[in-house]
Design a protein that fits this description.
This protein is an alpha/beta fold and 174 residues long. 27% of the residues lie in helices and 27% in strands. The chain has helices at 5-14, 67-75, 95-100, 117-127, 146-156, and strands spanning 17-18, 29-31, 35-36, 38-41, 46-49, 52-60, 82-89, 107-112, 130-135, 162-164. The strands form 4 sheets. The protein has a 4-stranded parallel beta sheet, with helices on both faces. A two-stranded antiparallel ribbon has the order 1-3. Strand 4 and strand 5 form a beta hairpin. It starts with a helix and ends in a 10-residue tail after the last strand.
Length: 174
């Protein structure tokens, strides 16, 4: 495991990774360096660069209670150049119908049988088009300026590997 910021950045670059915004709802950590820079067509060796600034990535299993608010918070971002990739990981509640009720061209949905959070996120990463990846869980609410502020911080500070953010905890009573 890399120990310093410089070593970590070098490791990400050598491993072929690019900038990613990842927010962990438990501790508010945002990281860079998870997804390849673009796609390589193995049959033709043609490299395809991405065309979206941010991919918001969510994997969900039985998230009917909170997912509508989570999706609305992403779609209401002040930064408008993004896609929202939702991997519905075999939900057995009304999650799928809630997701389908949204009519927004920025929404990309994968419905699949249950394979777990990590594999679902990796599946979402494989189709993500964004320069940055913003992780969100189905029970998270993004503040309206989240994507703008995080992208700005990462673009203006190219040596930054991790950015922390504050969180507001909300219980069932708001």
């Amino acid at each position: 495991h890399p120990q310093s910021k410089g070593t970590l950045k070098k490791w990400f670059i050598e491993a072929g990774f690019r900038n990613i915004i990842v927010e962990n709802s438990a501790n508010g950590i945002i990281g860079k360096g998870i997804k390849p820079i673009g796609a390589l067509n193995l049959s033709s060796n043609i490299y395809t660069k991405t065309d979206t600034t941010i991919t918001a990535l969510m994997a969900v299993y039985n998230g009917e209670r909170w997912i509508r608010d989570a999706i609305n918070s992403v779609l209401s971002q002040s930064e408008e150049d993004f896609e929202l990739v939702i991997v519905n990981d075999g939900s057995t509640d009304s999650t799928a119908s809630i997701i389908e009720s949204f009519d927004d061209e920025r929404l990309v949905v994968i419905n699949q049988t249950n394979i777990g959070l990590t594999k679902s996120l990796n599946k979402g990463l494989n189709i993500a088009k964004g320069e940055f990846i913003a992780r969100i869980d189905a029970d998270d609410i993004c503040m309206p300026g989240r994507f703008y502020k995080q992208k700005k911080a990462l673009v203006e500070n190219p040596d930054v590997v991790l950015v922390g953010s504050n969180a507001i905890l909300i219980d069932v009573n708001n």
